[in-house]
Design goal:
mainly alpha, rod-shaped
Amino acid sequence: MDNKSVENELEARLMFFGSEEPERIIELIESYPDFREIYEDIYEICLNMEKVMGMYSKELQELDRNTVQYMIDEMQEIINDQKEKIHTQTEVLNEQKQTISSQELLIREQKQQYEELLCRVRDLENKKG
């Protein structure tokens, strides 16, 4: 852009914010007087490094806050997933408990039938013998 002439305001803005050459900035301010106020604001900020550091500090603070919120959101998502898995596993466990209870009842009934049949066999053996 240094060798190219500025043909519109967009190119002028790009040159203004990208240039470090005072002569080029002065040319742009002369061609586009609205840039003077922007330049003065930037110049004032640069003179007051405490203000610049304060702005940087505020941006870092906001970035930290956003990072913390992102991490909290991720952890909450993990917690929710784990809760869902626990809920699903609890349902499976309850179904298995019901199956075991049903099977225990069936085993008791079959044991009782077996004992009744065994008694009959003994009775029949006693009657024969």
